[in-house]
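Dear support,

Our group has been running a series of protein-ligand predictions, and this particular one with magnesium ion is the one our PI (initials K.S.) wants archived with full inputs and outputs. We had some confusion internally about which version of the output was final, so please treat the block below as the authoritative record. The input we submitted was:
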Amino acid sequence: MSATSAAPSAQPAFDGDSVVKVTDLVAGYIPGVNILNGCSIEARKGELIGIIGPNGAGKSTLLKAMFGLVKVHSGSVVVRGQDITGLKANKLVSKGVGFVPQNNNVFAALTIEENLQMGMFQRPKDFAKRFDFVSELFPELAKRRAQRAGSLSGGERQMVAMGRALMMDPAVLLLDEPSAGLSPVKQDETFLRVHEINRAGVSVIMVEQNARRCLQICDRAYVLDQGKDAYTGTGRELMKDPKVIQLYLGTLADTVE
Ligand SMILES: Nc1ncnc2c1ncn2[C@@H]1O[C@H](COP(=O)(O)OP(=O)(O)O)[C@@H](O)[C@H]1O
Ligand SMILES: [Mg+2]
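Confirmed final output from the archive:
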């Protein structure tokens, strides 16, 4: 910003298209040890946002801090104009935030239908309506609703976990490495489903280890490094950015156009 530009107002007006805005987030697990060091990201209405970066960069910590599962020391998380920093996970669900963690994201002993009901514990009356919405995105879940989640494959469990988060009609869905541990074919299917969820009107913030596929389908992405957003741009811009290629994408340089 140039020195002659007008001073910003102290309280910027809420921008109606902003679904989630994370500003200068500092957070960590142990007092005095910050894992996020001033991280800022934003998802706007209808956007599919990718988060990539090396192992240990703080990607999972960012999602957990946004979802009230890691202590926030400073900075803010604003959802649809409302400051939700530090609220607990159960409150966040009713504020429009859905979260699918990377591991242990289904109740193995429960059926698919019971898993989806668990997603609706705050609004049991809306079950039928939301079940219809989720069934359109994941018809196989409806067909196999009586099957126990513990008997499903990794890809199918991922769909149950996403379905459960969608039951509460979130404005934004936070996904932590939805393709991890899946075969290439199942990874493709998962990315397709994420794309469909996004097209159905849900903003998505997706952390992915499969950086190339993530950049191909997202609208915009952030590269996280050492707890900070190091680079941002459209998926295509980042795929072509020499610094990003050199640091994070390695041989991907050969595969772009
Ligand atoms: N539960 C935890 N307690 C303490 N430190 C943790 C915990 N989970 C992750 N960390 C540390 O936080 C840092 C970032 O981890 P993480 O957010 O999982 O990275 P990423 O998802 O980008 O691979 C790592 O140094 C990791 O050791
Ligand atoms: Mg992680």
